[in-house]
Specification:
This protein is an alpha+beta fold. It is built from seven helices and five strands. The strands form two sheets. It has a three-stranded antiparallel sheet with strand order 2-4-3. It has a two-stranded antiparallel sheet with strand order 1-5.
Length: 218
């Protein structure tokens, strides 16, 4: 019997949803168009959160970077979303990856800084669930936390972040522009408009979301 526990941070229950384990899905489809669009549609931007410094201290977290629009908040990348970001970098085919740049940037394939976090997450989680064979874990039902509940928590603590095109954004002198996408009604939006010298009609959250398909030839 599973124990109903809650996490220390976003507070989702440990066994809130049941998920059937599948080895194959649209994400592994031989239809490359379907598969690539499914990977491209995954959005991990809300995983960058800005939380009160007092909350971070209460949780015993090391202090993150200061949120540029509110000095009382600190920035963190929620672990599950960071892992998802790394998985996406491996799921998107090479033809959609950014054009090559000199080191230290390494588009797939080849050395990639996202591989080590993937390894460490699996290693430190030390999940001891016995997966049945011959098709590993196929059809087994897992008791899981709710991804929707976790995402709702990140949306309640918005970092107003977008990853965008890494071939462009990663080489900018400042990463602040990546954190300008606050929704209408966010109290920090006025500061963002002033910083970028925009009027009250400017809604950066309405800007088009970048796609890996934007890197396709033609």
């Amino acid at each position: 019997m599973s124990v109903d526990t809650r996490s220390n941070y976003a507070n989702p229950r440990s066994n809130e949803v049941q998920v059937e384990w599948l080895q194959e899905s649209g994400y592994t489809s031989s239809n490359t168009t379907l598969r690539d669009h499914l990977w491209d549609a995954i959005n991990h931007d809300s995983g960058i959160v800005a939380v009160p410094e007092t909350w971070a201290a209460e949780k015993g977290l090391p202090m993150g970077s200061t949120f540029p629009w509110n000095p009382t908040k600190k920035i963190y990348f929620v672990n599950a979303f960071h892992g998802l970001h790394c998985v996406i970098l491996h799921g998107i085919p090479q033809r959609h990856q950014p054009i090559p740049r000199p080191p230290p940037y390494h588009p797939l394939p080849g050395p990639n800084p996202s591989r080590h976090p993937l390894y460490r997450r699996r290693h430190t989680a030390s999940n001891d669930t016995p997966d049945m064979r011959p098709v590993t874990g196929e059809g087994q039902v897992r008791q899981c936390r709710s991804w929707d509940a976790l995402k709702a928590w990140t949306m309640d603590n918005p970092g107003c972040y977008r990853y965008g095109d890494p071939n462009v954004e990663d080489v900018q002198e400042s990463q602040i522009p990546r954190m300008r996408y606050c929704e209408e009604g966010n109290p920090d939006l006025g500061l963002i408009r002033a910083y970028f010298d925009k009027d009250a009609e400017w809604r950066p959250a309405d800007d088009r979301v970048w796609s890996w398909f934007d890197n396709m030839d033609g």
